Amino acid sequence: MTFRDTLGLALRNLGEAKLRTSLTTLGVSIGIASLAGMVSLGVGLQDQFVARFTKSGLFDSITVTPGQDMPGGLATLARGGRRGFGANRRAQRTAPSPDATPLRSDLNDETVKELAALEGVREVYPNVRAPVEAKYGSDSEGLLAAGVPMTAKDEGAFQSITFGRFFSDDAAKECLLSLDMAKRIDPANPQNLIGKDLILIHAAPGNRGAALAPGDAGLSANASRVEEPYRIVGIIERETGPFGGSAAVSGLMIPLGRAKAIASATRALQQSLVPERASERTYNALIVKAKHAQAVQDIEDQIKKKGFSAFSLNDALQGAKRGFIILDIVLSLIGSIALAVSSLGIMNTMVMSILERTREIGIMKAIGGSDGDIRRIFLIEASAIGFFGGVTGVVLGWVVGRIINFGANVYIQNQGGTAGNLFSLPFWLIGGAIGFSVTISLLAGSYPAARAARLDPIRALRHD
Amino acid sequence: MATLLETRDLKKHYQMGASIVRALDGVSLSVAQGEFVALLGTSGSGKSTLLNLIAGLDRPTEGSLQIFDRDLAQMSSEELSLHRRRNVGIIFQSFNLVPTMTARENITLAMMFAGVPRSERDAAARSLLDAVGLGGRQDHRPRELSGGEQQRVAIARALSNKPHLLLADEPTGNLDSHTSRDILGTLKNLNEREGKTIIIVTHDASLADTYASRTITLLDGVIIDERTPSRV
Prior knowledge:
The complex is a heterodimer of chains A (464) and B (232).
Chain A: H1 3-16, H2 18-55, E1 61-65, H3 74-79, H4 87-93, H5 109-116, E2 121-126, E3 129-136, E4 139-148, E5 161-164, E6 174-178, H6 179-185, E7 197-204, E8 224-236, E9 252-255, H7 256-273, E10 286-290, H8 296-305, E11 309-312, H9 313-356, H10 358-366, H11 371-414, H12 427-454, H13 457-462
Parallel strand pairs in A: 4-9, 6-8
Antiparallel strand pairs in A: 1-10, 1-11, 2-10, 3-4, 3-7, 5-8, 6-9, 7-8
Helix pairs in contact in A: 1-11, 2-9, 2-11, 2-12, 9-10, 9-12, 11-12
Chain B: E1 3-16, E2 19-32, E3 36-41, H1 47-55, E4 62-67, E5 70-71, H2 77-86, E6 88-91, H3 103-113, H4 118-131, H5 147-159, E7 165-169, H6 177-194, E8 197-202, H7 205-211, E9 214-219, E10 222-227
Parallel strand pairs in B: 3-8, 3-9, 6-7, 7-8
Antiparallel strand pairs in B: 1-2, 1-4, 4-5, 9-10
Helix pairs in contact in B: 3-4, 3-5, 4-5, 5-6
């Protein structure tokens, strides 16, 4: 018996019991809809997460911090390099082994050049956070203004500026606001802030216009406090991941050149107050941008070999991806409960069908149908139910997902959030769900099919 | 004439609770090609059991059953289904047509198992239905046909894979006397004109005498009489 004939016969048999077939198929489709819906929720959340990461432009970034001062604490404690009370005791206890790379903390313009020369590096710039007091109207707020290099114009969060534009040049008295920040200033119409001035109060060299050499303690006494208007030129939707600390974006962004000057003046001021820390490094951290995301790991290793601490989001993202896999599995298991119930439905339908068609099976055997033929007919009937259930289940899951997505987005937008796709139904999930449905149906149908194939033809023929 | 089938000391015993039912208890017979044999006997004599063994629907407990020089007792389940598909056509008292299929589909189903291509199946089914006088009723389902017509469809189905041996178990048991003669006449025709070997099971001795070339009578699983009817 050819496959085509078996398929035709199986579909014909299913058509003879339309109501039962439809109800069983509906059961399977609900199972698949629940499974596909759950997995697509997991995939959707993962996509959103990854997309936000990608948009933040942090995939190709490495944050370089001094070797003995790695953020996160663990490495710091391990190396005993933390400053403060008890530092000497810790240093003695955890003296580095002779073959260990000497730690470095010189994060200055020379280091920027040194790291920029590494293979695969596109650019290196300092991660500058300039402490300022921002004033708009009668309100003011203390902030760390992030210094943004001009090269970031077409990257990450700056690719799509919600309102306005990027800085015109590195020395411009211009600023960008995050949407959150803009909403804090003007909750009703944040876009109206474009073109307005934000007053920034910050430290400045006493002798304005003179270059302030990094770490030059001699000029520190000249630092003073100034108020300067910064034109708000753009508002971006702030898209930092959970590791916003190393991101180049914050609520308030100013050109890197400006931020450096402010930070330098602030440092000069600090040094004049605490002279014993005058030899501290110029920058707290450097941002190294790789030419390709693939090169990140290699560059990170090279930087670590030089004695600095380096951290990229690749590591964190791998961990997060593992987390999402676990989430997907948990969601799949929840979704599978309905599918397990519907697979019992298939088994029940097939067993009932065999009882009803016992005599027919006997006839088929009497006229030459082999055990294998009978088994295949029933297996194809089961898998056809699985296939149709899978297809309708995916459609059902997609429709329900859209409805939930719509409702959730309305709610999120009402709460001031950003709308997004909570459910994602990629082709692999569509194919996988249908394939899984067919497989489960085949498994559920295998016992009834084997039972049908084993039927004794004489007994079957006598069956009423 | 060449021997088509031969049984030697064929036994079929069933376990019924604590007791053993000896449905066949040592039957030895041979049937030549082209014969029309009637198996006679009362209910429970073992005639249907013998027919089922010859059909390959059941396996003997002991003894041998040679058909076309192959022993059915030694065949696997797959080989037995091949035997039913190629060597024999079976006709039942209760017709045993698939109720959800039309007359034509019932016939093509048997050919489907034999792997006959679709185009050939439809043409062959039509000509078989024409041959049994049901040319205009090919799209009727069994419930739309009379008993005689259903049995004709069953005969057409039994012939569909061109078997040498036709086995009929009480083929006229559910039919009136006129239709019974009609059906047996059709079988006789197939025997005489196409040389089909026919074994029928019946309890009607007069019908057996009229149509069969040999009658074998069984009682309690053994042959008690075997004769060639003398026709006037």
